[in-house]
Amino acid sequence: MLAEIITIGDEILIGQIVDTNSAWMARQLNLIGVSVKQITSVSDDQEHILDALAQAEKRADIILITGGLGPTKDDITKITLAKYFGMGFRIDEGTLAIVTEIFKKFKRPLLDINIKQAEVPDGCEVILNKNGTAPCMWFNKDNKIFVSMPGVPFEMMYLMDEQILPKIKAQFKLPVIVHKTILTAGIGESFLAKEIEDIENDLPENIKLAYLPKLGQVRLRLSAKGKEEDTLRAEVELFAKNIIERIKQFVVVDDDIPLEKAILNIMKEKGLTLSTAESCTGGYIAHLITQHPGSSSVYWGGAVSYANELKESILGVREETLAGYGAVSEQTVIEMAEGAVEHFKTDYAIAVTGVAGPDGGTEDKPVGTVWIAVSNQSKTIAKVFNFSNKRIQNIERAAISALTMLLNLLKEDYLKE
Amino acid sequence: MLAEIITIGDEILIGQIVDTNSAWMARQLNLIGVSVKQITSVSDDQEHILDALAQAEKRADIILITGGLGPTKDDITKITLAKYFGMGFRIDEGTLAIVTEIFKKFKRPLLDINIKQAEVPDGCEVILNKNGTAPCMWFNKDNKIFVSMPGVPFEMMYLMDEQILPKIKAQFKLPVIVHKTILTAGIGESFLAKEIEDIENDLPENIKLAYLPKLGQVRLRLSAKGKEEDTLRAEVELFAKNIIERIKQFVVVDDDIPLEKAILNIMKEKGLTLSTAESCTGGYIAHLITQHPGSSSVYWGGAVSYANELKESILGVREETLAGYGAVSEQTVIEMAEGAVEHFKTDYAIAVTGVAGPDGGTEDKPVGTVWIAVSNQSKTIAKVFNFSNKRIQNIERAAISALTMLLNLLKEDYLKE
Fold it and tell me: Which residues 300-329 of chain A have a CB within 8 Å of chain B?
């Protein structure tokens, strides 16, 4: 089964935004056994959109369209779809009710331009978008479907997850696909591949192994295609078990969840608490953790101690330590981590201090030098890393490295065989 | 002048990577007056690539192609381009020298498969890629150009910056394009459009206005096309001035920078310092701020006070306040903000406490209830918001709202006319 994704709007074509929607949609489609043949970004130009729709219809069965559904003049997706399918317009009462409610909630007057949001081509099925004023429209044509969604990522994701993917699964005969993900950290893609080469070579035709590397982590994803879910699940679990056995020390979790979520799960189960003391990561570790619902049962909070004064006042780092060794040093990071455990009264703490760049480097401590420590109530482990000269990457890599160190400490403390 | 971008390879189509290359290329092209008509991602399938090339040639004058230039069997860009242009192959000596040198440097044996990297269609001009083994190939056809580049971002960026963009500027007669961006916050797209409707209607043919909304903010971008940069700049500035005058209270900054960067710029100029006290935003505001190089001259740090204990111990929120009014309350958020100013010794502070969800809501304080306060050393302003039931969006909206409140306080204190 083939799909195509068409994004409409100038934002991508002028380079104002990166098209993250399409990658997300492609991943979800692949997970249910639909391959994506082409992704096309076109401008708000009717002839061009019509042409893109016709081209996509020739190649694919499922055409997913995002964007161009706003209330302003440059948003022409609806009128173009009506033209493509030769339809007129109707007011969709469900959408009108949502639009009215949203404007009432925000105490804004409902303008004509907003009421127009509820107008849809009369032959489409409306899928209610509970998160915004743009309707989601589903068109059937000769066993093919066209679905038009808003380009706002969370509105699109919610609609895909809750409505469109289930409807696609119900309408098309898709193969059964079973996935199993193993998250690893601390080993590169090519070394991993070498470690498990024989297991990979033994995989049957219907099971594929993908390496998905990202920032010091590699996700291994086994995907089995077939007819019978239970059989596929058993097959995949067996290969996963062999892989995990082989690379045990690098396995973070055998599930498709991020590193910090795996840590939260372990700590929650063991009734443990965590705090953070962040300098160069500037709150990014706290943000990664607190993205997850329920994180408050484990994570108590922490300090973003950018200024040395705050390292002293909140974390109790000694003035002599800062003066003698500098803010980016083993001594400072240890006092930060131990200070967090002590002052925030948690079982574990993470501390990070470094030179994120692009300025602030010295010969001794060039940009990318990052000290990380993890502490429990009796032990602290500190390590220095030398990342790149790119600020954002340094922040992200430092965060992942810190979380990996915490996971290893937790494993040492609790998951030893 | 129109361009199209074609990316070749499965990584994007299976959702493994986000296509950041195309956005970057589009931005660079727009800056030199080349509009991008379409961005297309196709798989490693010869017929499909040939079709995409033919389609692009119909619409555009400049066709930029990335990807599919690796040494393995699934990389078929070169052979497909040779077929498209009816060319044979030759060995490019310059590329061969680079390949040989790279393998020597990494002490790896030079295999036949690597030597093949230096084979190119015999009618193309090779642009030497100093950062990798894949050649960059430039084809001229009937006043149109096709350029094939590696998909590795830093190789592509270097080639574009150093070679391809200058060559395009030399070969084509390009218009001058001038952009001007106005960032607004606190007003929706449709209300903005209504406010400035007459100004928009009065825009001359060569100036376009785009609305780029994102999380409670809307960017207005004026783009003028013409021949003479100074004239265009003056024209655009005039319209921008009229727009800013009309919607003054919603204007964050008349520049293409994010909200927090605008705040950092103002505070740096005035020599002011900032701290944060975050509960439900969990470090996200700190992260937004500390992404920016040089933020440490303004931002001293802050607390992520997820647990009530930390609200008391780090920020000095009184136990009676928490017990009497709850963690999500006007009283608590005021004490958090004032506590941050006092304990972290900064000129300004932001505090946020709320129910991010999906759990933790009550009848009184449903999920999405967020109290935000901003303080200077003599005044605190607190406000309650009712966002949605989505955790990540609540965090992002709360952060943007908090930053908007801070900006307004700064404007009141420093930018009054």
Answer: 300-307, 309-310, 313-314
Whether A225 and A148 map to the same domain: the answer is: no
Pairwise CA distance, residues B39 & B43, whole Å: 14
Q: How confident is the model at residue A132 (pLDDT cuts 50, 70, 90)?
A: confident
Pick from B12, B212, B344: CB nearest A310: B344
B9 touches chain A (CB under 8 A): no
Angle between helices B330-344 and A308-315 (to 10 degrees): 120
Contact in structure between B19 and A19 (CB atoms under 8 Å): yes
Best A220, A288, A290 residue to mutate vs chain B (most B CBs within 10 Å):
A290
Contact between chains at A303 and B314 (C-beta distance less than 8 A): yes
Same domain, B242 and B336: no
Half-sphere exposure for B319 (CA within 13 Å, toward CB): 2
Quick check: B13 and A40 CB within 8 A?
A: no
Give the nearest partner residue to B313 out of A23, A105, A343, using CB atoms.
A343
* CA-closest candidate to residue B381, choices B416, B345, B414, B413: B413
Where does residue A90 fall: left (phi above 0), alpha (psi -120 to 50 degrees), or beta otherwise?
Answer: beta
Question: Tell me: the pLDDT tens digits for A240-259?
Answer: 999 999 999 899 999 989 99
Same structural domain, B303 and B267: yes
| Nearest-CA distance B32 → chain A (Å) | 11
Write out chain B residues lying below 8 Å of A303, CB-based. Answer: 301-304, 314
Q: What is the ipTM of this complex?
A: 0.84
Domain tally for chain B? 3
Amino acid at A400: I
B residues 38-77 lying closer than 8 A (beta carbon) to A: 38-43, 48, 52, 55, 59
Same domain, yes or no, for A270 and A214?
A: no
Q: Identify whether residues B157 and B190 lie together within a single domain.
A: no
B290 lies in the same domain as B230: no
**A37 and B213: CB-CB below 8 Å?**
no
* CATH code of the domain containing B332: 3.90.950.20
Domain end: B253, B277, B307, which one?
A: B253
Which of B209, B230, B253 is the last residue in one of the domains?
B253
**B309 vs A345: CB contact, 8 Å cut-off?**
yes
Nearest to B306 among A23, A111, A301 (CB): A301
- Same-domain check for residues A54 and A124: yes
Tell if the CB–CB gap between A38 and B290 is shorter than 8 Å.
no
In a 3-state reduction of DSSP, which class is residue B392?
Answer: helix
Task: Report the CATH number at residue A220.
Answer: 3.30.70.2860
- Tell me, what CATH number does B32's domain have? 3.40.980.10
Q: Which domain holds residue B356?
A: 259-414
Interchain contact B293–A (C-beta under 8 A): yes
- In the structure encoding, which two tokens stand for residue A256, read together? 């498709």
- Distance, in Å, from the CA atom of B360 to the CA atom of B407, rounded to the nearest integer, reads 30
Mark yes or no for CB contact A294/B28 under 8 Å.
no
pLDDT digits (tens, 9 = 90+) for A10-67: 889 988 888 999 999 999 999 898 999 999 999 889 999 999 999 999 999 999 999 9
Q: In the structure, what pLDDT confidence band is assigned to residue A281 with cuts at 50, 70 and 90?
A: very high
Non-local CB neighbours of A223 within 8 Å, separated by 6+ positions: A177, A178, A179, A207, A208, A210
Neighbour-count burial of B110, counting CB atoms closer than 10 A to its CB (0-12 exposed, 13-18 middle, 19+ buried): middle
Is residue B415 scored above 80 in pLDDT?
Answer: no
Measured over the CA atoms of residue B319, residue B324, residue B328 and residue B329, the dihedral's sign is: negative
Residue A189 pLDDT class (50, 70, 90 cuts): confident
CB pairs under 8 A between A and B: 270
- B286/B362 same-domain check: yes
Which tokens hold the place of A399?
A: 């965060």
